[in-house]
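User: Design a sequence. Structure:
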């Protein structure tokens, strides 16, 4: 996991095409077939042996096909707030995801563009004027296999003129969001790429609510990390017969660079969001000493569970809610520590329940045991003072319908609530509940808990029931014109079809 140095990453790695890579050259990675100087038949051999005339033309390398990457958001299932005080927390992937479409430009177009229409971000940089000399300085240069745990101040400084040009006329709050996203992208691009990198358009769409505590920034950073590592051909797979050790190495490599992107946005992130977004499923996360890396345990056998996710639309401040608990701990140390210890026991119990061979997600008894722990965890969080009337109203509506077990997720004080749905909940009951939530201005999503992590669609072609030969090609126009979250899901969504052909995952 990021920061713990558990995986030893060697500087030489075989790409998915079987060619050894030493420095992650983008030019090598995107050339495809280079016929110049290679005999393909007798006539071509004769041509290549003759002196080149002015009329001779070098064979062109085919352009990289458009491709996509995708990564999930996350929820804290158990342990929020206790995790700040050295206890364990369980976080799991959800089926709301971010999607990145990468489109290559012709060789004459020496620009890179970052488009994120969901937040109205659209910015283009000239490749050749970016601070390559600073990022390629031997004392500064990082390679794809490196572990980066802090941002280099000199590199950050070198980027600033290129970041300050992003959305200069937007309002301060919007400009801050745009420049944080641009900083994350540009730091990864300059670290992993080179000045010979081809022009590209990077277009992001997300089905995750932004700023709702669901790991949207980490999801985006994972998409960017995976895409850039694929472009420099330093990832193997994914494919069904890939050995587990090799798949885990690719996941770890993507995760490391996604963490770098998160540092650009958040300064000192925990690493749990990008870890879940990369590997999917669920993790147990614990950080007893903030001077040391966290301990992250992957729960690879975490079952996929039906979840109702409800956004209160109530803005909240994580710092404010964390400060509340710190103040309570200072005023009532014995009682507060007892509550935090109890939350830790709930997380531990949930881990044991979900890991036991007898757990059956279709069984009412298994779901009820897991759900009771959700209910207990929420009660303890209420005792810490981090709930909100809107969150409690969601619980009232769910309990009244008898649909499942509900708790706040994340910092509280607003944000989102999660409900583990009962296996036997009637569709009409669920429909009525959702209508009541919408009527009270809640935003609701039916999602799956514990799904896949980072995925790849190469090339960007899906069999969507269209009449296009070979499948439907996903281009800029289609992707940008997809109408909202539902439109994005219908066009490219991983979760739309249970076995959607095309998307592949490291598992």
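Assistant: Done.
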């Amino acid at each position: 996991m990021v920061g713990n140095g558990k995986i030893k990453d060697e500087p030489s790695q075989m790409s998915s095409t079987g060619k050894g890579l030493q420095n992650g050259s983008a030019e090598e990675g995107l050339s495809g077939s280079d016929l110049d100087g290679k005999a393909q038949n007798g006539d071509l051999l004769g041509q290549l042996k003759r002196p080149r005339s002015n009329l001779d033309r070098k064979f062109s390398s085919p352009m990289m096909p458009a491709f996509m990457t995708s990564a999930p958001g996350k929820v804290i299932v158990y342990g929020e707030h206790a995790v700040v005080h050295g206890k364990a927390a369980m976080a799991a992937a959800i089926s709301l995801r971010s999607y990145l479409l990468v489109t290559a430009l012709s060789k004459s177009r020496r620009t890179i563009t970052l488009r994120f229409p969901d937040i109205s971000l659209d910015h283009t940089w000239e490749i050749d004027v970016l601070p390559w000399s600073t990022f390629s300085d031997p004392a500064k240069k990082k390679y794809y296999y490196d572990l980066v745990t802090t941002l280099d101040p000199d590199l950050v400084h070198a980027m600033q003129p290129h970041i300050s040009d992003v959305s200069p006329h937007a309002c301060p709050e919007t400009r801050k969001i745009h420049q944080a996203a641009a900083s994350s992208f540009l730091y990864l691009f300059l670290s992993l790429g080179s000045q010979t990198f081809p022009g590209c358009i990077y277009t992001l769409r997300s089905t995750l609510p932004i700023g709702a505590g669901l790991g949207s920034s980490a999801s985006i950073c994972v998409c960017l990390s995976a895409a850039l590592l694929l472009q420099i051909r330093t990832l193997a797979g994914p494919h069904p017969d890939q050995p587990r050790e090799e798949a885990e190495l690719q996941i770890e490599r993507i995760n490391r660079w996604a963490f770098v992107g998160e540092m650009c946005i958040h300064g000192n992130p925990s690493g749990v969001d990008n870890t879940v977004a990369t590997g999917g499923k669920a993790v147990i996360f614990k950080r007893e000493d903030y001077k040391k890396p966290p301990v992250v345990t992957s729960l690879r056998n975490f079952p996929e569970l039906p979840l109702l996710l409800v956004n209160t639309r109530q803005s909240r401040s994580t710092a404010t809610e964390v400060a509340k608990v710190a103040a309570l701990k200072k005023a009532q140390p014995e009682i507060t520590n007892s509550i935090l210890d109890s939350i830790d026991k709930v997380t531990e119990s949930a881990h044991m329940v979900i890991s036991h061979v007898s757990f059956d997600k279709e069984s009412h008894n298994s779901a009820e045991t897991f759900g009771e722990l959700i209910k207990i965890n929420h009660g303890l969080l209420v005792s810490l003072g981090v709930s909100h009337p809107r969150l409690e109203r969601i619980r009232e509506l769910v309990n009244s319908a008898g649909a499942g077990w509900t708790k706040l997720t994340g910092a509280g004080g607003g944000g989102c609530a999660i409900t583990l749905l009962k296996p036997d909940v009637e569709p009409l009951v669920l429909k009525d509940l959702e209508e009541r939530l919408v009527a009270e201005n809640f935003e609701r999503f039916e999602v799956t808990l514990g799904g896949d992590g980072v995925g790849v669609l190469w090339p960007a072609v899906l069999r969507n029931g269209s009449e296009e030969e070979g499948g439907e090609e996903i281009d800029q126009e289609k992707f940008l014109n997809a109408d909202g979250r539902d439109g994005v899901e219908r066009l490219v969504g991983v979760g739309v079809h249970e076995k959607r052909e095309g998307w592949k995952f490291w598992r």
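The longest strand covers residues 88-104. The two ends are 15 Å apart (CA to CA).
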